[in-house]
Amino acid sequence: MAVTKNPLIRYKILDSCFRNPYKKFTKELLLETINNKLIELFDDESHCIKLRQMQDDIAFMKSAEGWNIELAEEFESKKRIFRYEDLNFSINNAPLNEIELNEFQSAIQVLSQFEGMPQFEGIQEIIAKLKYDLKSETNQQPFIGFDTNQDLKGMEYFSLLYNAAQKQIPLQITYQDFKAEQPYTFIFHPYYLKQYNNRWFIFGLHEETMKPDWNVAIDRIVSIETSNAKFIPNTTINWTDYFSDMIGVSKPIEGKIEEIVLHFNQLTGKYMENKPLHETQKHKWINNETLEVKIKVIPNYELARLILSYGDSVILLKPKYLKDKIVKILSHTIENYKPIIFT
């Protein structure tokens, strides 16, 4: 019997009833108590159970797979009273059963994949303790891979930025973007961390310009210190909405939402049906060889790069100015690949 969310909740309710020395729980009262608690927790009756399910739950708790609970042989007016033989017993204090051990060990294997990531500082000690306590295998090879860049520069600042955004702490950041010859320093009020294309960015208010969606790439940060400035909270931007009308992290100042029309060849088109470019995507096959994809986004640097990444498997039809830009980039690319003639 699988231990899933609702059964575990029911076992804990039963455990509480069995430990109660002041109330006499008959099977009818047990069932009523369980269902009242479930309604209270989930705010509807869809999680309520019938007598047969409750009897199965009790049988599981009695079994070796469960917690080997022992109920007293107690009756009142020929009705069975359900109560622990030892009222000090609780499944919360009992050793983990086999199913719980399996669940924990599976969770440990997944958690292990996060070891070394700065946003999970301290997890190594937690995993080591869990493995020791549960006697889990420590030599099992990883079986899941995450799309992360462990060598990304600046990730040592992630935890600091995470905490600053969460606790509303202003920062003094020394930064060097790709265009600047020398680093420069500014006061920054962090609001929102965003990952795109295996890079992390933090958005917030740049105090000098008062721009509330200033974009800071973590890998371009030189140093960070906390600032004595008073934190200016975000009162204008819903970040879910902010990113919903574009691809990537850069939003042009005068940018507006436009319809982007793309034609993909047959092979890539089948892929694009199952992996949309954007939540606004609508697509249709205009013939056996071509999938037409339409999205409505603000054109930006990331969109152009994404289109270019599909090479000769896609044609951009509109908007025209973006098509001309793509053609210009491709023309320069061809020039770069022309043979060099040595004289």
UniProtKB/TrEMBL annotation:
The keyword DNA-binding applies. Keywords: DNA-binding. This is Putative DNA-binding transcriptional regulator YafY. It holds the Pfam family WYL. Residues 259-330 form the WCX domain. Residues 156-208 form the WYL domain. The lineage of its organism: Bacteria, Pseudomonadati, Bacteroidota, Flavobacteriia, Flavobacteriales. GO terms for molecular function: DNA binding.
